[in-house]
């Protein structure tokens, strides 16, 4: 009889301990627990010490309240001008109302990923290729606006969404590279032709300027010679000796130039230079 009473007391104590254990819940910081009573949503437990009714209440979901990073997989997107580009993104969300998140949609992670992908295709599909490649901030703003309203019904806040990559497809990249190479080649050809044209113009202008200078120099020399002859003529008048001196000087300079030239071999000077000079100007002195 005593053994039976002890057994009953042990079982009763064990039941009490288990009941107390099941009625106490300690929720860690950064989490919220969703409680169901008899299969129906009852309450949401906040971080700290909480009490529930054992056997009636059940912790159905444990939800984090920290920011969640969602990687949006890459996908093919067609722009308005029918060009295929590859785009992906990353979204940062925070669960504000866990009960709405777990009961509002079957899987809020997959739901948000699909929602971002769909919105991204829709936004880029209304843009030209060049605009899509250069308007990340615009795409980001439109994407955030379109998603925020939808996921707010699930008790989730979109902190931000970032466009990671927007790249043309490999085929389009190859075509763009070929186009860019052709454009660079065209610019190089035009630049080279312009350079050759400018060089030819400058060379012609140089020849023209040199010809003008040569002509001016010849005119100046002719004027100088004319003036020199006039002055000599006025100075010597009927006297022969100064003329003989000037012509003799020119004659000797010419002989010296011939002697120092590359073709000069042997120069024979006349024995009587004055007679030779006089012979040269014989027609003049007569």
UniProtKB/TrEMBL annotation:
SMART domains: PHB. The keyword Transmembrane applies. The keyword Transmembrane helix applies. InterPro entries: Band7/mec-2_domain, Band_7, Band_7/SPFH_dom_sf, Stomatin_HflK_fam. It is a single-pass membrane protein. Coiled coil: none annotated. Keywords: Membrane, Transmembrane, Transmembrane helix. It is found in: Membrane. Its main location: membrane. Residues 22-180 form the Band domain. The chain crosses the membrane at residues 6-27. PANTHER family: STOMATIN-LIKE PROTEIN 2, MITOCHONDRIAL. This is Membrane protein. It comes from Desulfofustis limnaeus. The lineage of its organism: Bacteria, Pseudomonadati, Thermodesulfobacteriota, Desulfobulbia, Desulfobulbales. The gene is qmcA.
């Amino acid at each position: 009889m005593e053994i039976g009473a002890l057994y009953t007391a042990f079982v009763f104590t064990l039941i009490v301990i288990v009941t107390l254990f099941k009625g106490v819940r300690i929720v860690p910081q950064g989490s919220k627990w969703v409680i169901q009573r008899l299969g129906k949503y009852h309450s949401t437990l906040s971080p700290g010490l909480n009490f529930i009714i054992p056997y009636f209440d059940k912790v159905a979901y444990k939800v984090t309240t920290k920011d969640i990073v969602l990687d949006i997989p890459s996908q093919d997107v067609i722009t308005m001008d029918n060009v295929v580009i590859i785009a992906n993104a990353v979204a940062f969300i925070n669960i504000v109302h866990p009960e709405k998140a777990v009961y509002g949609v079957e899987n809020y992670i997959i739901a948000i990923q699909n929602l971002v992908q769909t919105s991204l295709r829709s936004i880029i599909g209304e843009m030209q290729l060049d605009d899509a490649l250069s308007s990340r901030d615009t795409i980001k703003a439109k994407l955030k606006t379109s998603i925020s309203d939808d996921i707010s019904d699930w008790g989730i806040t979109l902190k931000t969404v970032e466009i990671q990559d927007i790249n043309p497809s490999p085929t389009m990249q190859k075509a763009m590279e070929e186009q860019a190479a052709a454009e660079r080649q065209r610019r190089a050809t035009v630049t080279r032709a312009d350079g050759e044209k400018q060089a030819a113009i400058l060379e012609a202008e140089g020849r023209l300027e040199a010809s003008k200078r040569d002509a001016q120099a010849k005119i100046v020399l002719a004027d100088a010679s004319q003036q020199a002859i006039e002055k000599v003529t006025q100075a010597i008048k009927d006297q022969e000796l100064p003329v003989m001196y000037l012509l003799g000087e020119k004659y000797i300079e010419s002989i010296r130039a011939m002697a120092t030239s590359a073709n000069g071999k042997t120069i024979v000077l006349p024995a009587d230079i004055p007679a030779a000079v006089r012979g040269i100007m014989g027609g003049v002195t007569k």
